[in-house]
Design goal:
Layout: H1 2-10, E1 18-24, H2 37-50, E2 55-60, H3 64-77, E3 83-89, E4 92-95, E5 98-101, H4 114-117, E6 119-120, H5 121-128, E7 134-140, H6 147-150, E8 174-178, H7 195-203, H8 211-225, E9 233-237, H9 261-273, H10 276-285, H11 290-405, H12 410-426, H13 438-451, H14 465-478, H15 489-496, E10 511-514, E11 517-520, E12 527-529, E13 535-537, H16 547-562, E14 573-576, E15 579-582, E16 587-593, E17 601-607
Parallel strand pairs: 1-2, 1-3, 3-7, 7-8
Antiparallel strand pairs: 4-5, 5-6, 8-9, 10-11, 12-13, 14-15, 16-17
Length: 608
Amino acid sequence: MLIFAIGLSCGPAHADRRVALVIGNSAYKSVPKLGNPANDATLIGGMFKKAGFDFVDVRLDLNASEMRRTLREFAGRTRDADMAVIYYAGHGIELEGTNYLIPTDAALETDGDVLDETIPMERALFAVEPAKQLRLIILDACRDNPFSKTMKRTLASRAIGRGLAKVEPTSPNTMIAFAAKAGSTASDGDSRNSPFAIALVEHLPKPGLDLRKAFGFVRDDVLRSTTNKQEPFVYGSLGGDDVPLVPARPAATGPQANPQSELRRDYELALQLGTRDGWEAFLAQYPEGFYANLAKGQLNKIGAEETRASAEQKAKSAEQEKARLIAERAQKAEQDRAAAAAKAAEEARIAAEKQKQIEQARTDAAEQQRKVAEAAAAKAQAEKQAAEKAKAELAARQVAEKASAQPAAKPAADRQIPEAENQKVAALSPAPASALSAADLAKAVQSELRRVGCLSAAADSDWSPASQRSLTLFNKYAGTQFDVKLASVDALDALKAKPGRVCPLVCNFGFKADGDQCVKITCRAGYRVGDDNECEKVQEKKPVATRDDSKKRDQDRKQSESTPPSSQASGQMICNQAGCRPVAKGCRLGSVPAPGLGTVKIPGEICN
């Protein structure tokens, strides 16, 4: 019972649950890569693990969706935690007094993109909110931000600060530590890790050291290493009790039996710190002995891990660079294709415009010739009427003179007057004809209807019902409303203005649409045209080598050759402005009433 009681009194008390999330963003896609954040995150994550945290999640180079998902998952772990810590190293930005953390895939071309492509710092505060005793956020994100130099301002009055903005946590027992105080920027330093990260690893994990005092030591170290250019700053407040990141070790009771207890304690401290600087300090104090050899082994282990991490980072960077180059080449190829298509479309438009101008010039010339011909005909008719009138008047005078001179000749003169009037009526010329006759106009409209794919018959100058149906189809697909009962000059001009096919192309089974014509579908060896008018593999059948089956097969073949083929899927294609597709099974091509056009028929599907 005495031994059991001693064991209970000397056993460790119930430890608080501590969780940490570490994020390091280095490989930015739109701006130059940062050197230290990934290294700093690895260093800080190792510190939390050595400090005995129950859960440590280290994430590197996260895009926007990955950062949101990681913060959401970490918020679930803080619900039953006493202490929750988030460390972020990378780019940050301040917009109108609000701080944002920048993922690796952010472009931030305008200040409005900040709201869509970044993560508000309040999201991190929300993730640590459920912790019971301490909520700590450490931001090593005060670097000189390249996004703010290239970002376009949608409002001239919108402020984008240098560094991060000052924050005042509203929740109790909450601290926010900046690598540099509000409005200033932090340095990456000249070594593998930033001065801020090195100072954090040096002071935060000291057992029993209050966080406020630990961050004070961090501030002193950073000011000293940056020659007073960078001053870390802490926002928020804690209560009167000490709040260490690592609880103090219980004081040893009784006599010290081990003479190397101090050496062992220093070794365990260096082991808990787990950094190169810690082991080098230990070896400087204890250069020889068993623990010195262990420390050298730990240094070798750290060196191997650094080499591995560096090689992994280089491999990852090389892979990302390769992916970036492949994406840029694909984008350039797509841009070239788009430029070529745009150029071809512009050339086609220019050619159509020139053709329209040529046709307009021809139409204007024909109209001018018609007007000239009508004027000449009218002038000739007027001259002819004047001559006939003068001739009639002369004849009347002659008749009158003869009547007065020879009264007996009056009946003859009376007979001559009607003859002169009949000659006058017969001499009238017909009305001037138009420069383009109705037959020529009908033939020209039929030719244009054939060109745009709306008429399959030949142009024969006869404006038949087939021609009227073709013009009806053109009205439907071109959006015009010409009178289909006769060929008009306006319809001819509208047809000439179309550079290519207007009415859809319909192909029979075994053929497919290729531009303005149907071409036969050719399948490679072992494939045939299926019911859906696509090439499909021919199913091989293993023959059975028997005489009876061979005889029956010959009979079936002869019977199938002698009988007409059975009805199958049509395999026909129907095309319209949206493209071409196979005729549905159970359907066939035929003439169906056009919507809203009464008895006019157009090509379409007729289904069972």
